[in-house]
Design a protein that fits this description.
alpha+beta; 21% strand; 9 helices; three-stranded antiparallel β-sheet; Creatine Amidinohydrolase; Creatine Amidinohydrolase, Chain A, domain 1; six-stranded mixed β-sheet; homodimer; 355 residues; 2 domains
Chain lengths: 355, 355
C-alpha cells in the first residue's frame, strides 16, 4: 500500500503521463522510502515499490524502508538496471534529470536497449522535490530539535567568543557544540565572518583574529535525522560601534516586518518585499544582495524560495528561513536569520536564540 | 601560458578531436585552476582559460586562479552560458558527462541554440580526472600533512578509548582531534564500528557501547588544502580475544605482502592479488569483500583503483591506500589501512600510526 507521500507522487505521475518514476537524489530517496544510505535508486509505480542498493546497505535498507522491496544491486548499474526496471512492468518511467548525470542516463538507456526492454526513460526535471514543500508533524518535530541545538550553539558562541580568537576557532566552537549536543554531521560549513569579512554573505572562516566592536556574522545549522535548522546571529565582543547599532536595528525591524506580515497564501515575492522595503526605506536597499529566505527540511536550501523573483506561494505547514541582511564593503555585514513555521495562518519561530 | 597541468589536458583534447573543454567537477576545477569555491565552470582551450563563477566568489577566484580570466556569471546558467562559450571561439567543446546532469546539459545546449552559436557540446565522460593520477611534489607534501594529522588522531583514539564509550563518542574524539590539529572539514564521516558492527566495512557510528576485547574498526582521514589522507586502525580495549589476534596477524601479513611487493609497472589487479592471496591461503578469502585500495588526492576515492578487476597500472608518483580486511558476520572485522606513495620503484608509507 503506498503511503501518503508516495500516493501524492503517483497522482503527479498520472498527470505527467508517466507510469513509473526513478528517484536517485538522496533527500527525495529518503523522503519517499525512509532509506538514508549514500547510494540507492527507487522505482515507484502503482503496483511496485523497489529500492536498489549495493551490499553495504542491504540490511539497513530493509530496516529503514519496510514498504519497499529491496533489489540487491551487484556490479555496476549497466549490469543490473534493465533487470531492475523490468520488475515494475512500466512503459514510461520518469527520472530526475536535475540529479542524473548525462553518463548515467546514457548507461541506463543502453542497458535497456541491450536487454530488449521497451520502457521509455523520460527526462522529468525536478518533478518530486516540491512534494516536500509542506511539512508534516513528524518533520516539524525534527526541525524543532535541530533548531534547539543551533539555539544552544548560538548561546555557546556568545559565551566563549573573545577578542583575539580566530574565526576558525569560533566556528569550531560552534560546530563542536552542535556535534556533542545531538547533531549529526552537517552538510554545510559553519560561517564565522568578522569585521570586513562579514560583508561577504558566504565567507569562509579564516585565521583573522576577532576585534572588539566589529560585527561577527555566525551562520550555521544542526541536523537531526536528516532534517536541518539554519540560524544566523551577528554578535560582537565588547561594545558595538554606532554603525553596528544602526544597521542591526534596521535588519531587526526588516525581519520583524516579515515575521508579522506573512500569512497563508502570500506570494513568496511579497514576503521578501515586506523585509526588503524596510531596508530600502532606510537607504540600504543596494546592500541587501540576496533573497529573504528559503525552505529547510531534508535539504538546507529547498522550496519555498522567498525572493523578489520567486513564483512560490507560502502556505500552512511550510518551514523556511527569514534572513534579511545589510552588507557594507570594507566595514562588514549584519544578518539575522530565524527558522519560521507557517501555522494557523501566521509565523511561529522555531529558533529561539536571543537577538 | 598554460601550466603543466593544463598542457597535459590540451594534449588529451587534441587526441580526442576537441578544441575546448568545460570542467565542472569540484576536484578537477581545483586541480586545473586552483579555485576551491563551491560553484564555478572552467573553459579551457589553446587560446583561452576562463573561470565563470557567481558574485560570492569573484574575489576569491581572482586570487586563487591567477592564470584564469574571471567571467562574472550573473543570474542563471541559461542567461550567461552562450556568452561564456563564445568568448573562447571553439567549435567542439567537451564537457564532463560524468558530472553534468541531464538538465544542465540541456540548458547549455538550448542557451547556445538560442544565441545562434554553432559550438558543439561533446559528451566526454570523465576525460580529465585520470590526469590527476600522478602526484607532484606539492601534492605529496599536502597528503603527508594530512596523513600526519590522521596519525595523531589514531594515537588520540588509542589514548581516550574506554569500555562503555559509544561508537559515536569515539568517532567525535577522532574528528575533534583532526579539526583542532589543522584539518579542514572532512568530506566523509569517521567510521567507528565495534564488535559485530565492525563486520560491515561502511558502518555508521552508533550509540552501541564499546566492550572490552572486541575489535573497533576506526576509519577516517584528514584534509589539508583539499588533499586527503585515509587511515584505518583496528583497536581494542583491554586484551583482544584469540580470534582478534589470529585475524589481525593475517591482515597485517596481507598488507605487508602488498607493501613489499608493489613496484613501478605492476598491474593494480596484481597488487590486489599480493594481499588477497595471503588472506585466501589462510582460509578467509570469502571474507575480504572489497578491493585492496584506491588513489587519494583531491578526492578520497580516485584513480588508481586496486582491485581484482582494475585495468590500472601503478607507477612512480602515485598515492593510494593499501587496506586489506577480514569481516566475519556476527563477530566483527579487522581492517588495516595505510597511505602509500610509489617512489623510487617501491612503496613508502605516508601514514606512520602504530599498528
Amino acid at each position: 500500500m503506498p503511503n501518503n507521500r508516495v500516493e501524492k507522487l503517483l497522482e503527479k505521475l498520472d498527470k505527467s503521463g508517466l507510469d513509473g518514476f526513478l528517484i536517485s537524489s538522496p533527500p527525495n530517496r529518503r523522503y519517499f522510502s525512509g532509506f538514508s544510505g549514500s547510494s540507492g535508486l527507487l522505482l515507484i509505480s502503482r503496483s511496485t515499490q523497489l529500492l536498489a542498493t549495493d551490499f553495504r546497505y542491504w540490511e539497513q535498507a530493509a530496516s529503514q524502508a519496510p514498504d519497499f522491496t529491496i533489489f540487491k544491486a551487484t556490479k555496476g548499474l549497466k549490469e543490473w538496471f534493465a533487470d531492475f526496471v523490468s520488475r515494475a512492468g512500466v512503459s514510461r518511467v520518469g527520472f530526475e534529470s536535475s540529479d542524473v548525470t548525462v553518463s548515467t542516463a546514457s548507461t541506463m538507456r543502453r542497458s535497456l536497449k541491450k536487454a530488449g526492454i521497451k520502457t521509455s526513460l523520460i527526462s522529468s526535471g525536478d518533478l518530486c522535490s516540491r512534494l516536500r514543500i509542506t511539512k508534516d508533524a513528524q518533520e516539524i518535530a525534527l526541525i524543532k530539535k535541530a533548531a534547539a541545538i543551533s539555539d544552544g550553539a548560538a548561546e555557546h558562541a556568545r559565551r566563549v567568543v573573545r577578542a583575539g580568537m580566530s574565526e576558525i576557532e569560533l566556528a569550531w566552537e560552534i560546530e563542536g557544540y552542535m556535534r556533542t549536543h545531538g547533531s549529526e554531521p552537517i552538510g554545510f560549513s559553519v560561517i564565522c565572518a568578522s569585521g570586513p569579512n562579514s560583508a561577504l554573505p558566504h565567507a569562509t572562516p579564516s585565521n583573522k583574529p576577532i576585534n572588539p566592536g566589529e560585527p561577527i556574522v555566525c551562520d550555521f545549522g544542526a541536523c537531526v535525522d536528516g532534517y536541518t535548522s539554519d540560524l544566523t546571529r551577528t554578535i560582537c565582543v565588547g561594545e558595538p560601534d554606532s554603525q553596528f547599532k544602526k544597521l542591526y536595528n534596521i535588519v531587526f525591524l526588516a525581519q520583524k516586518a516579515a515575521i508579522e506580515g506573512i500569512f497563508n497564501g502570500i506570494k513568496a515575492s511579497e514576503a521578501d518585499a515586506l523585509a526588503r522595503s524596510v531596508i530600502q526605506e532606510a537607504g540600504y536597499g543596494d546592500y541587501f544582495g540576496h533573497s529573504l529566505g528559503h525552505g529547510i527540511g531534508l535539504e538546507v536550501h529547498e522550496a519555498p524560495f522567498l525572493g523578489p523573483s520567486s513564483k512560490d506561494t507560502l502556505g500552512e505547514g511550510m518551514v523556511f528561513t527569514i534572513e534579511p541582511g545589510i552588507y557594507l564593503p570594507g566595514w562588514g555585514g549584519i544578518r539575522i536569520e530565524d527558522d519560521a513555521l507557517l501555522e494557523n495562518n501566521r509565523v511561529t519561530l522555531l529558533s529561539k536564540a536571543a537577538k
